[in-house]
């Protein structure tokens, strides 16, 4: 059967294999792209699949904000050399924008969306970029925050819209948005990047994490020979310290450790006669899964 140039180019883009090998595989598969990919893989020629299991511990975190909605994404690569490439960075920023424009879609659904003005889906664009860059690239995570009344603030460490660490913070306020509220949000987003809290308040902490913390402290205290009544006091004290270290509202503000984040919000409320509330945050860093 006759194989078109377009079919050969499509298979080459998807697999990274040479033109002649793609043509032969398509002929053998009677023009079926998926079967041709399978045949190339059997022959050990599919370069994209060869790299699929490569570790992607480098990459970039990108954010995009638009009015009362914002997205944060983690695009991973194998090396920091690729992560610093302008094409890779632009891809990450475009994905963040796409996530904001497709609020109803999760990561897998977003991968099926058409990428900008190209004929590729996002998944195809990522695969094509991986082929050009010569290493595995993966969209690890996406999250989107939205708010009806208030502000979504962001902070990117060592960058404007993309870097190795970033955070989004949504602060609810019925007083509208002003520069002071934006600055408060920016301060808290910067704090989140600096301290990586586990939850906004104690009620949102994973019970398994709390139980594990208590269990470790309890076992250590028992092993040291402490009596049972003292053991429980030690556990209680360590748990309170754990909350102060891990819960956003209880953490000491990184720019002024005489204030907790809760204190910072109360101070703003007193000065502006409003009551801002942190309703959500997202923190991403390169290397996490």
From TrEMBL:
Residues 79-82 are annotated as: Involved in Mg(2+) ion dislocation from EF-Tu. Signal peptide: none annotated. It is found in: Cytoplasm. Keywords: Cytoplasm, Elongation factor, Protein biosynthesis. The keyword Flavoprotein does not apply. It holds the Pfam family EF_TS. One of its GO terms (molecular function) is translation elongation factor activity. SUPFAM superfamilies: Elongation factor Ts (EF-Ts), dimerisation domain, UBA-like. Residues 71-288 form the Translation elongation factor EFTs/EF1B dimerisation domain. HAMAP family: EF_Ts (MF_00050). Associates with the EF-Tu.GDP complex and induces the exchange of GDP to GTP. It remains bound to the aminoacyl-tRNA.EF-Tu.GTP complex up to the GTP hydrolysis stage on the ribosome. Belongs to the EF-Ts family. This is Elongation factor Ts. The gene is tsf.
